[in-house]
Specification:
The protein has 296 residues and is an all-alpha fold. The protein has two domains: 261 residues, CDP-alcohol phosphotransferase transmembrane (TM) domain (Four Helix Bundle (Hemerythrin (Met), subunit A), Up-down Bundle), CATH 1.20.120.1760; 27 residues. Helix content is 80%, strand content 2%. Strands 1-2 form a two-stranded antiparallel ribbon. The N terminus is likely disordered.
Length: 296
């Protein structure tokens, strides 16, 4: 049976639309997050960013499963990510808490947007040359997700309902405040989010490596352990969804710098580095054997 080329073309176009549809949903969620934040619906705004992150993961998976990855899809995904994981979380955190810092607040929010844009531009340039197992710099969905999860965590547990008092006390009596209430200062909403925004901005444009979920070797080698871990996380998520999201995203946020430090002290080596060292060692042994034979 012969396949009509026209039908084949239309079928491929239909599949091609699918991953870009998920990208559009992610973009819609990011746009909704901006509108919700402007109208004061902070909780809905934070949830919308997390929803955008879920569909951002799906569009890449669908593109790989259906073999419909394209340059257009890559560019469209980056533009969508800039809105959903750059502009949306910056507006959310500025309208909710950073505005009390005045110019410093919107400056920090803009820094986050600019670093997200540079992170995405660098990814597009390096997409064909970087390792699939790693991201260079913190992915924008990870930075935006941590901001959203932290917002939900603070709202859920009603942590520091009057942040202005912290800033007023800090500005009026900085030495006394830092000496008497260091814990309140460190974990206060304004300072916490200022730290997260600055740290996320720097990590996005850094050269710190973050592991990618595209590396499925661990899942293949230990399927039973992965299944038990998934069930355990599912139960925890059902009981405390906000705490689980906050914890998981915080761990991923810190995993890059921690793994980099561990590599620096030599406690952890990449597989590629180990294989390269093995090849070099083999070459050295062969050369030594040749020299020995020559002398004999």
């Amino acid at each position: 049976m012969k396949i009509d080329p026209k039908n084949k073309l239309s079928a491929s176009k239909g599949i091609y639309i699918l991953p870009n549809f998920f990208t559009s949903v992610s973009l819609f969620a990011g746009f909704y997050s901006i509108l919700a934040a402007i109208h004061g619906n902070i909780e809905k705004s934070a949830i919308a960013i997390l929803v955008a992150g879920m569909f951002d993961v799906l569009d890449g998976r669908v593109a790989r499963w259906t073999n419909t990855a394209s340059r257009f899809g890559t560019e469209y995904d980056s533009l969508s990510d800039l809105v959903s994981f750059g502009v949306a979380p910056a507006i959310l955190v500025y309208l909710w808490i950073l505005n009390i810092f005045g110019e410093w607040g919107w400056g920090a929010a803009f820094l986050f947007v600019a670093c997200a844009a540079m992170r995405l531009a660098r990814f597009n340039v390096q997409v064909s040359t970087i390792e699939k197992r790693y991201f260079i710099g913190l992915p924008t969905p990870g930075a935006a997700g941590l901001i959203s999860a932290t917002v939900l965590f603070y709202i859920k547990h009603n942590i520091e309902t009057t942040p202005q008092k912290t800033i007023i006390s800090l500005l009026s009596r900085p030495v006394d405040f830092l000496l008497n209430k260091p814990v309140d200062f460190i974990f206060s909403r304004p300072i916490s989010f200022l730290i997260i925004v600055f740290a996320g901005s720097i990590l996005m444009i850094s050269s710190v490596k973050y592991r990618s979920l595209k590396d499925m070797e661990f899942f293949k080698t230990k399927p039973l352990m992965v299944m038990l871990l998934a069930i355990f996380l599912l139960v925890l998520f059902y009981v405390e969804p906000v705490k689980v999201l906050f914890t998981c995203l915080s761990i991923y946020f810190l995993s890059g710098p921690v793994e980099t430090v561990i590599r620096k002290v030599g406690l952890l080596k990449d597989k590629d580095q180990n294989s390269a060292e093995a090849r070099n060692s083999k070459v050295i042994h062969v050369d030594e054997a040749k020299r020995a034979n020559g002398k004999n």
